[in-house]
Amino acid sequence: MSKAPSTNATRLLKQAGVSFTEHLYRYEEHGGTAVSARELGVDEHAVIKTLVMEDETGAPFIMLMHGDREVSTKELARQIGAKTVQPCKPEVAQRHSGYQVGGTSPFGTRKAMPVHVEATIFDLVHILINGGSRGFLVGLDPRDLDKLLTVQRVNVAIP
Q: What is the pLDDT of residues 42-101, one digit of tens each?
């Protein structure tokens, strides 16, 4: 495989002094976390997806969820005090994050957005999360999310 890319996400991680590992894999369109988990030989539960979502007013936010779980949008809306929430359209998500869909990282986004994290992610010892490019994940301690982002923990996972 080629060399890991330098992205806004990796620059931010380095600048913050966060220890992380770089993991390249063969990206597949619409493959999601199942592909990255398979390619890297890891449990999909530890591969965290970065979802750019919006509330009923169109205000964007980031939701971090286990790769093998879905987000209960109804419960998420209730927990964050919104009427409704939904995923942003890909072109809108890209405009907010500055990242291409499939390569969205919660670190170094173009626009600062609130970040909601499934609380059980913090129970893991190590996570893999997008590093800002398709086919590129970074591995880190989930507690580093608190060091880099202002997060709100939520319990909205659907098996």
A: 999 999 999 999 999 999 999 999 999 999 999 999 999 999 999 999 999 999 999 999
Joined tokens for residue 76? 């998420």
Tokens of 50: 């970065």
- Rounded to two decimals, the pTM is 0.96
105, two tokens:
């990282």
Task: Tell me whether residue 4 is in a domain.
Answer: no
Our CA angle for 151, 16, 108, nearest 5°, is 60
* C-alpha to C-alpha distance for 83 and 39, rounded to whole angstroms: 38
Would you say residue 61 lies in a domain?
yes
Within a domain: 132? yes
Residue 17 tokens, joined: 């002094």
For 25, half-sphere exposure in the C-beta direction (CA atoms, 13 angstrom radius) is 26
